[in-house]
Design a protein that fits this description.
By secondary structure, this protein is an alpha+beta fold. 41% of the residues lie in helices and 21% in strands. It contains 27 helices and 31 strands. An eight-stranded mixed β-sheet has the order 6-5-9-3-2-12-15-14, with no helix packed on it. Helix 12 runs parallel beside helix 16 and helix 26 runs antiparallel to helix 27. The structure holds arginine and zinc ion (ZN). The site of zinc ion has 4 residues, from helix 3. Its cofactor is Zn(2+).
């Protein structure tokens, strides 16, 4: 059956479903190509007068075998999206039998197979590929699931309700929407543990993996227990079932999924060992385990009324997992890393053709809205709310939210109301953060007269698709004031800006202060500050706010690189002097020093030039960054060996903040050293490495030094059986390639026998790395665009969701010169012209082209 023509769904059209689902009972008879799904669902008319009156059940790619109402066969009207039929005006029982083919499901949505194992992904609208159902988040019900099959392990949501030869039953007592349904069956082994909740409930915990991966579960299990404890301590939230299962799956479109009591993870986001995972992998795994666990309250017990409210659960849960990471590791380092990520992923989205509000108002394919804007900007909006009301009021509002909405499918209006009711504030204007897209630009002017210092801010948000005019937003601006001697005369204070232009005065000051503005990055805005290099250098040296200190250096780095590109200037030695004092200060946290040592990404520099009305030249940007890095290496040549020594870890490997900070700084030092010694230190590190963090950074430097051939081969031979390590091998070769080689390297890798393009991790390893290789992807002759387009066209038939996500590599195409634009447009048009293009990809490409 062919998919129907794309339809646009609007938030304003929301209507409740006309029936309440009281209970769902499912029976699965598993078979790779002929799985039978028997459903028994009790419906009761919804008394809400606003509810839809048409009885419509979603269902896609299903073979209906039989349908009955109250035991009698019924005739139904089937379309590609679902079915309708006549139903009684009172309570009734619906029974259906459908057949599906999990082994043929390459879209990895609904019930599918990965390496011989059955698994599901239902968010957002995948349950309709399993059986006929009102597949919308506001329809919540209890589920009983019986699984029949020879697989030794058979799992579903909730608590175990019995098992026997060839069958297992599960019962989930908590009403839930269908997108949280999950089923797993296969030959799996578990890493077991237990957790006692604060009220004394004993919970069985398991991480289920394929045989052979048992040794990679311990870290994830510790992260799970830490998350359970943290949510009790910080949010007062306890776990609510007898068992919590996590399953690792090799073929998965996203990172992980919070199915009730049965989280399913992309294996890359849960399996870890020192030999095969980097420190960055460990930190990410810890955060994702926490994220999915935290969803049990923010997402599952309180879910979303409709998919427009996605940020209700995702923004809040990202905010919660960032608090968790800050508490477990370093808060300033986490904040700076999050800002790097926001500026690197969310800002380009918000400032380009894919810009959409944190709460979108329309979509064709909801999977295209699992974006940096919904997730990361959604979390920033909650951070602002927290900052505006203060920590105590935030905690009270959250308690009220859980009390008032437990068991509900809620909206952003409900969410804001608990803050209004807790604080008495009117959040009407604040709500614009949810409805206006685009990144506000915040200009600041300073004035000093008679002991009074005045900061005047002006906000302006450029037009975005569908939103030509913007109203002023509430912007919390955290500022601090420093004396010329570096003392802080005003500790961090949050200014609440509500007007288009607004002044704030500070009096009683003995001398003109230096302002540190947007401390902790208190709002997701672009700060436009005309500040002298001397003042920036002063903040780099003295600011007590680590984020602003880091950002001062970042601004100086940016200015220096832009001057190198435009006027062929030499690297700014005044900045390097200031930077040197931080980087070589061994009283500071090594991971903070590593962040200081990094320069803005090439894509970010391209965006800066574009915003200044210039056309970025990716090759010139690449050359300038190379020149700067070389200058850094030469300037510090004598001191690098000493610094490298400071980063050595003598204790046995642990992926904690302390050790990983040292290794991160060590990797930054190695990349400078490699410019001077041609790869000798990298080779030594490669040969001695006993963990993946050291091995991989050594390999990257060897490739960059042109000395990687042998190591690339030996790495392959060492790790060819490990899929996750091989993903790194594929990605690194593209990422570390010279700009004029990246496309050829990627193309050659697609011909490697281990390039399994149907596996999303492997596809992303190669093409995600290519898209991230700024000068390589944006090659003047368009070869990068063409290669990616070829592969997106190929992948779309099999896996629309991953194809559509990868399209965002093209979102910045209008920054560049006419030649590159023509190549990008041609590539996008070629994708668009593909017969039978999926709704997912067609929506993305048409938005990008507009
Ligand atoms: N809710 C999941 C998470 O953020 C993501 C699921 C995304 N799935 C999708 N089909 N877009 O934890
Ligand atoms: Zn999430």
């Amino acid at each position: 059956m062919k998919d129907a023509a794309p339809q646009t769904i609007y938030l304003k059209d929301y209507k409740p479903f006309g029936w309440i689902v009281k209970d769902v009972s499912l029976r699965f008879v598993l078979h790779p190509t002929e799985t039978r799904v028997f459903s028994t669902i009790t419906f009761s008319p919804n008394p809400d007068p606003a509810a839809e009156r048409r009885f419509f059940l979603h269902g896609e790619h299903l073979k209906l075998k039989s349908a009955k109402i109250d035991g009698n066969p019924v005739s139904v009207d089937i379309t590609p999206e679902g079915l309708t039929c006549d139903v009684p005006g009172c309570d009734f029982t619906w029974e259906a039998e459908v057949e599906i083919a999990p082994a043929e499901n390459t879209a990895l949505e609904g019930l599918y197979m990965s390496n011989g194992m059955y698994c599901t992904q239902c968010e957002a609208e995948g349950f309709r590929k399993i059986t006929y159902y009102p597949d919308r988040p506001d329809v919540m019900s209890t589920f009983t699931v019986r699984i029949e099959g020879d697989e030794p392990v058979k799992l579903s949501n909730g608590n175990p309700a019995g098992q026997g030869d060839g069958w297992a039953e599960w019962h989930d007592p908590w009403p839930k929407p269908a997108y949280l349904f999950a089923l797993v069956a296969g030959d799996l082994v578990n890493h077991p543990d237990r957790f006692t909740t604060k009220s004394g409930k004993d919970v069985e915990l398991n991480i289920w993996v394929r045989p052979g991966d048992e040794g990679k579960c311990a870290f994830g299990m510790d992260a799970l227990k830490a998350s359970m404890k943290w949510d009790e301590d910080v949010y007062g939230r306890e776990y609510d079932l007898d068992i919590f299962n996590i399953v690792a799956v090799d073929d998965f479109n996203m990172g992980a999924m919070e199915n009730k009591g049965l989280n399913i993870f992309n294996s890359s986001c849960v399996l870890a060992s020192p030999e095969t995972s980097t420190d960055a992998n460990f930190e990410r795994i810890e955060a994702i385990i926490a994220h999915e666990y935290f969803h049990n309250w923010t997402g599952n017990r309180i879910t979303c009324r409709d998919w427009f409210q996605l940020c209700l659960k995702e923004g809040l849960t990202v905010y919660r997992d960032s608090q968790f990471t800050s508490d477990l590791r370093s808060a300033p380092v986490k904040r700076i890393s999050d800002v790097i990520d926001l500026r690197g992923r969310q800002f380009p989205e918000d400032q380009g053709p894919l810009s959409h509000p944190v709460r979108p108002e329309s979509f064709q394919e909801i999977n295209n809205f699992y974006t940096a804007t919904v997730y990361e900007k959604g979390a920033e909006v909650i951070g602002m709310l927290n900052r505006l009301v203060g920590d105590d009021a935030y905690a009270k509002a959250l308690d009220l939210y859980f009390d008032r909405h437990d068991g509900d499918a809620a909206t952003i209006e409900d969410w804001l109301k608990v803050f209004e009711d807790t604080t008495g504030r009117d959040l009407t204007q604040f709500k614009r953060w949810y409805s206006q897209s685009g990144t506000p630009r915040l200009k600041v002017a300073e004035d000093w007269a008679d002991g009074t210092y005045t900061l005047t801010f002006t906000q302006d948000t450029p037009p975005t698709p569908g939103q030509p005019d913007k109203a002023p937003q509430v912007i919390p601006i955290a500022v601090g004031l420093l004396n010329p001697n570096g003392d802080e005369v005003l500790p961090t204070t949050v200014l609440e800006m509500t007007e288009a232009t607004q002044s704030f005065t500070f009096d009683g000051l003995a001398s003109r202060p230096v302002a540190s503005i947007l401390r902790e990055f208190s709002a997701p805005v672009v700060l436009e500050r005309d500040q002298s290099p001397q003042e920036r250098a002063f903040l780099l040296a003295h600011d007590t706010d680590p984020f602003c200190r880091w950002d001062a250096s970042r601004e100086l780095a940016r200015a220096s690189i832009l001057a190198m590109i435009r006027d062929g200037a030499a690297p700014d030695t005044a900045w390097l002097d200031g930077l040197e004092r931080v980087v070589f200060d061994d009283t500071l946290d090594p991971s903070f020093r590593e962040l200081m040592l990094a320069v803005p990404t090439q894509s970010e520099l391209a965006q800066n030039l574009f915003e200044m009305g210039e056309t970025p030249d990716p090759d010139a940007i690449h050359r300038a960054v190379e020149t700067l890095r070389q200058a850094m290496a030469e300037r510090w040549a004598d001191r690098l060996p000493r610094l490298a020594k400071d980063t050595w870890v003598t204790a046995s490997y642990a992926p904690n903040a302390d050790q990983s900070g040292k290794r991160a700084l060590g990797a930054a030092v190695l990349s400078l050293t490699t410019r001077l010694d041609g790869g000798a230190a990298a080779q030594a590190q490669y040969d001695a490495a006993d963990n993946m963090t050291l091995q991989l950074s050594a390999l990257g430097n060897l490739i960059r030094a042109g000395k990687g051939d042998l190591a690339v081969k030996s790495f392959y031979n060492q790790w060819k059986e490990d899929r996750l390590v091989m993903d790194k091998w594929f990605g690194l070769q593209v990422g570390a390639a010279e700009p004029d080689q990246a496309v050829e390297v990627a193309r050659a890798l697609t011909r490697h026998p281990d390039f399994d393009w149907k596996n999303p991790n492997r596809f992303r390893a190669v093409f995600g790395a290519l898209a991230m290789h700024h000068a390589g992807f944006h090659r003047a002759d368009g070869a990068g665009y063409a290669l990616l387009a070829d592969w997106l066209i190929t992948l779309d038939d099999k896996n629309p969701q991953t194809t559509a996500r990868m399209c965002s590599a093209f979102q910045t195409w209008k920054r560049y010169d006419a030649g590159r634009q023509a190549h990008a447009r041609a590539a996008l048009k070629r994708i668009m012209a593909k017969p039978g293009l999926s709704r997912d990809t067609s929506e993305m490409v048409s938005r990008i082209l507009e």
